[in-house]
Amino acid sequence: MKNLFGLLFVFFSLSLSANDFELVKKKAEIGDSASQLQLGITYEYAYKNHQEALYWYLKAAEQGLSGAQFLLGVKYYRGMGVLQNYQEALHWYQKAATQGHADAQSHLGLMYSKGEGVLQSQKEAVKWLRRAAGQGHSKAQYHLGTMYYYGKGTLRNNNIAYSWFLLANHNGEEVNLSKFKMNTDINKSQQIAKICLETNYRICE
């Protein structure tokens, strides 16, 4: 649902008429953070102007808007409109993640897992991936499953790993489940996943 909201926000940003664009721009210029974010998205996706997008994302991010903080992190991570800088990406992902932004939590977890811009820590990776997974973030659920499957940052547990793969599949991620069936109690994993969904991700292990 959170990802759907983000997609709808992008869609409406791209659908702005000339008059609406000017109205949003005026609101952004007087400090409205939501308008600053919307303006940044419009510049990035409608006009392909990464530097203007970066400028408005930063304005909104500095006011604490988690969506802008996340998109600013993406800019620095990929080097779009700015020199690639993993430390800056990490900084903005961290700010958004601590506010509960699932995409930022997932990205932050992967940066810790790979040691990008930060000392590698599989335990920190699991911590942030688990938070995103608990919000129904399918990619985080898949990556958390791999952490359990290979015993990175947590004790290896094939059954819990497979349950996260099932949940990721359930939420739209295409996971090759046959790859992870070895030494796994499928029935037990299915039961874990079922309870996890029924408890809204409160009991998943």
TrEMBL record:
PANTHER family: ERAD-ASSOCIATED E3 UBIQUITIN-PROTEIN LIGASE COMPONENT HRD3, SEL-1-LIKE PROTEIN. Gene3D superfamilies: Tetratricopeptide repeat domain. Keywords: Signal. InterPro entries: Sel1-like (IPR006597), Sel1_AlgK (IPR050767), TPR-like_helical_dom_sf (IPR011990). This is Tetratricopeptide repeat protein. Pfam families: Sel1. SMART domains: SEL1.
